[in-house]
Every structure is written in C-alpha cells, then in structure tokens.
Amino acid sequence: MTLLTDAEASKYWNERHQQETDLRSGGDISFDEATNYMFYLRRLTMLMDRVGLQNNPVAPLYLLDAGCGKGYFSRELAKFGHQVDGIDGSEAAIAHCRELGGGPRYHRTTLSGWRTPWLYDVVFTVDVLFHILDDAEWERSTRNLASLVRLGGKLIVGDWGEDGDHVYGNYQVVRGRDRYLPLLDACGMRFDGWEPYRFRRSPIGLYTFTRIG
Amino acid sequence: MLIHELLPLVGDAQSVVEVSQSGDALRELLRAPAASAYRAYVPDGEKMDAGTVVVAFLGPKPEAHIDAETVAPALRELPVGGRALLLLGWPVPELPYHRLLDELVTAGLQVLQVVPLDKVSRHGAHCAVLAARVDRLAPLRTHLSDAPLDLAGEAPDLRALLRLTGEYVFGDLLSRPLRRNLAAAGDRIKEQDERIRALEKEIAARDATIAKAESRLARARNDLADLRASTTFRIGNTVVQGARRPTRGIVSVPVGLVRIWRKRGTPGERPGPQS
C-alpha cells in the first residue's frame, strides 16, 4: 500500500480533528469514544508514573506534549500543577485546544520545527511519531524532541517495542527499538525501558529515556 | 512536597543533629523517626559519622531562624557521606542563597536538590536544601525527584558534565534579559503604585471640594426658599405679575394681596429643593 505524502497526511489529520469526536480524533479510530476514554486514561496513568507524583505551584515541572492533538494529555497534566506546552501540526486541533483552554500553552508547529529557549523536564509524544511517515522527518523530529530535554529529564515516546519497522494502513509506520535506542543513545539519552499499554490488542507502549549527557 | 517527606528523602539517618535549637518544633515538623537519635548540635561535641544528618531552619527572622554562619561549623564537622537538610524561610522567588552556598561549598558539600515545600503558611519553610559531604561528585538529581538520596551511585561522567556546564552557560545567558525585564517590571509597578497613590490623594481633595460646594449650594437653596416664602417677596411678586399683565392685574393683584393678608402669620409655602 502506498503511504500518504506529507501533505496528504497533514490534510488527513486536520480533517480527522475537524470531523471526529474529541478522543477518537486523536486516539484509536477503531474504538468508540467511550473505549478511547479508557485508552486515554490508561496512557495518562502511565505518563504519571514517569513524570512523577510531585508538583509545586511556585517551581513547577515543565512538560512538552509533542503532537498534542486536541490536548487531552496537556490539559490533564496541567491540572496536576505542571506547566505544559502542547504542539501539533493541525490547525483544527490547536484551535480546539485554545478554545478549551485549561492552562497549557499551544503552538502550531511540526515536531521537528519547535524551537524554544527553554528546556523541559519531560518531553512526551504519545502515539505520534508513527504517524510521521517520512523516515528523515521522523529522525529530525526524534532528535529535536530529545534536544529539548534537560539533563536528568525524560523523553517518553509511544511506539512499538519490537525491532524493525511495520506499516499499518497508509498512514502509520511503527518503528522499533533498533531504531530508537541507537539514535537516542547518540543524543545522550539512556534507555530506561519500554512498557506496553496492555490495552486490548495494542502493540504499542511507552519508551522512556533519561538524559544523562 | 510535604515537610515530613523530607527526612525519608535524605535516606537512612542514624542520627539527626539540629543546629537551630528549636526545642521539639523542628523534630516534630520533620517527624524524625524514633529509630534515629535526635540531638542538639554542640560545637566539637559528639563526633558525626556518615549516618548523620545536620538539620537547621535558616531564614530572615532572627527570633525563629538561624543564619548561614551559625550552621557552618556543624557542616564542616560532617564526614564524607554525612548529609544536611536545611529548611529555608525565604520565598523561593527571592531566595538569597549566596551566603549559604558559600558555607556549603567551603564545607565540601554538594547541593543535591532544593525542594520547594507545600503548606508554607503552616511552618514557614518555603524550600529545603538537600546536601551531602562528598569527595567526588554524587549522582545528579532532578527537580521534584522523590527518590531517596543515593550517594554511592554512578558519578556524572564527562559528557554529563559537558551538558551540565552547557546548560548552565545558556541558562545564565537567558536569565540575564529576564532578570533585567523583571527589574524593569518591578520599577514600573513601583512607579504605577506611586502614581495611583498621588491620584488617590487628588481624588480625595476633589471629593472634599465637591462636598464643600454641595454644602454651599444647600445653604443658598435654603436662603432662596426662605426669601420666596417671605411676605415681602410674595407682595412684590404679586405686584410685579400685575404690572406685567395689567388687564389681569386689575383682579389678580387685589385677590393676591387679600390671600397674602389672610395667610399672614403662617409660614409661606417653600418651593421644593429642585425648584
């Protein structure tokens, strides 16, 4: 099957965010809204385990939600007292996020294009990188996200835990640990582990890396 | 983080040495475990070991806090592996850490983490410094980490130190315009506060002037009403109205004068305040 071009993928996601319900649009489209709610909660608790259970309003943690879609994770993590930036390439999704507000700051940008003078305690990208179909853009995005993590900070990536790549449909290319580990090791990130979502038959899980150099 | 979460963060404390002399206050706040010996600091007293944690409450109020110079001798007595847990009574955005940092570095302690605290109004401690006496760099910790200290872990390697110094240099550069902007914003707020106070004074002076004018107006209205109610004015008014319309005046002037004469001795009808 021929994969979508960058322009087609961008159009696809913008239309999907306009047409689909809140969680289904950025979640798993094969599930209904209620199931997607469960799926989002499962991943949120996994993020909490990695971000930690401490907060402070005076000196908060700074998080980047890369590929925030309609902003579910950004808003929920902002409720915990963290300062969250949400970035996404979809104009419709960012407009929706800004309309809902809730604390995070949203910016329309690609993952490879986000520039800021501030580093983050945690950068997370949940089920987004496998929607970047072009390998070179995937690598640019992954490198850019890693560069935004401060020393001791974490990079959390949602993708599958096997070796090798696998194509699903015409808009998903999952990439395995043989891609992530060497690339991020070269970026000064230590691999801490991969944990599957254990949600229905999802093959995806969270990689966690810590910046050590 | 809650204040009683701090001692578990420091790791196993076999003995806790308090420099503040707070009585039981600090011990209770920290909920020092019964298993650890808790004692007040005595200069050159009982020797400290690697299981010792020096605790103190530093801050701006001499009646409640001690200063960096007072805690320094205890820090210098800590052997390698000994730790310090220092509560600070200054708000985090205004933290004057320079004197304390001097003493910590002089005593050979590495600052491992500065933990902002919750419920400040209850105990007055805004944050806590976790530090340890080291002879090599201890593993770096992250902001809001709640894992117990591990001094024996892997020391940061050259790449980590390069990253650390790089982040410091860039962070230092970026903090400069922010510091300047913050100071400028502070100056603007001060100027605006002064301007607001001047305007408030001006408004108060105008309010006083208005009150005086209103008082004068009320008195003038009373005088006018008294004048209009007087017999002299009513007779004069009747005659003047008659002179203006002589045809009617032939009747109205005598009738009016009779009416005034009948009502003599009774106060005249005063016009309303808006007339």
From TrEMBL, chain A:
Pfam families per record: Methyltransf_25
GO process terms (BP): methylation
InterPro entries to which the protein is assigned, alphabetical: Methyltransf_25, SAM-dependent_MTases_sf
Protein keywords: Methyltransferase, S-adenosyl-L-methionine, Transferase
Keyword Transferase: yes
PANTHER family membership: METHYLTRANSFERASE, UBIQUINONE BIOSYNTHESIS O-METHYLTRANSFERASE, MITOCHONDRIAL
Protein name listed in UniProt: Methyltransferase domain-containing protein
Automatic annotation (TrEMBL), chain B:
Assigned keywords, A-Z: Coiled coil
Presence of keyword Coiled coil: yes
Coiled coil: 182-230
Keyword Coiled coil set for record: yes
The name this protein goes by in its record: Uncharacterized protein
Organism of derivation: Actinoplanes nipponensis
